């Protein structure tokens, strides 16, 4: 091996060891600086074990941990004593994971039961919808999900075909419970008979009325979808392309009306064009007359009469000279014979 190669390898090893030593020294100094930094600390009560909906809170299921004072979550408790204060027990209103801060919005008040009334928002109502394995999205709707409520109904017209259609009645409704289970930690699909949703008073009235007017079904929304969508009514004509008789008649009337309106508009346009053309022609004639009236007539110039040459025509009649030969006809019986003979002078 060449000497230069050996020297380069030795230098690379020395520089590598030096870099490692310097990095360790820098990390140590940084840890020491962080340890010396005086950060205000506080305590926050967290769940010592995983809690489900309806679990009763007790000191053995809770613990206190240190927490940066400037980052304490809103509604958190500093001590277990503060959390359990008051008469009666407190229960979890939703699933709380281990080491997750226990907030006031996630538990009941003193002596309050873990029921749907405790999780309802201000001014909101809980309304149940009867569903089956199909209308309930095959059991894949869980508490905490958002759904759209669809209304299917059929209108019967005397002497005419029935009309069936589907409308999106309400959008982004929060599911509070499926059957009698309100635990949001449930993750196994189950076929249910009813779904309870959170609704305002007006929406609750709509759901109650719609339950008797037709068939309600649910459409599961994407978890991140928050805005309402623009929807339209879907009828049988949208499925098959066929148009019911009454709709066809109405469309024919609208088509005839549109054709008549278009013809009337075209006739009005032609009349307007003619009137405008006549107006422009009259204006042009008036302008021409104005120009002519303003123009001064040019003086008439008279010129001396020109001398004309008088030509006299003399007509002389000349007797034509007779021909030198003549044709003579002689009848021989009934036959005419012609002879060309010299003319006698």
Major β-sheet profile = 6 strands, antiparallel
Number of strands: 10
Overall average residue pLDDT: 78
Helix content: 25-40%
Shape: elongated
| Rg, Cα atoms, Å | 56 Å
- Helix count from the secondary structure assignment: 6
State the end-to-end CA separation: 160 Å
Order of helices and strands: HEEHHEEEEHEEHHEE
Q: Quickly give the structural class.
A: alpha+beta
**How much β-strand is present in the residues?**
15-25%
Q: Stretches where pLDDT falls below 50 for ≥5 residues?
A: none
Detail the topology: elements first, then pairings.
Blueprint: H1 3-36, E1 41-47, E2 62-68, H2 80-83, H3 116-119, E3 125-130, E4 146-155, E5 163-178, E6 194-199, H4 201-213, E7 215-220, E8 234-235, H5 236-240, H6 245-294, E9 325-332, E10 335-342
Antiparallel strand pairs: 1-2, 3-6, 4-5, 4-7, 5-6, 5-8, 9-10
Explain what the structure shows.
The protein is α+β, with helices and mostly antiparallel strands. Helices cover 32% and strands 22% of the residues. The longest helix has 50 residues, at 245-294. Among the domains are: 41-114, Type Iii Antifreeze Protein Isoform Hplc 12, CATH 3.90.1210.10; 120-240, no CATH class; 243-278. It has helices at residues 3-36, 80-83, 116-119, 201-213, 236-240, 245-294, and strands spanning 41-47, 62-68, 125-130, 146-155, 163-178, 194-199, 215-220, 234-235, 325-332, 335-342. The strands form 3 sheets. Strands 3, 4, 5, 6, 7 and 8 form a 6-stranded antiparallel beta sheet that branches. A two-stranded antiparallel ribbon has the order 1-2. It has a two-stranded antiparallel ribbon with strand order 9-10.
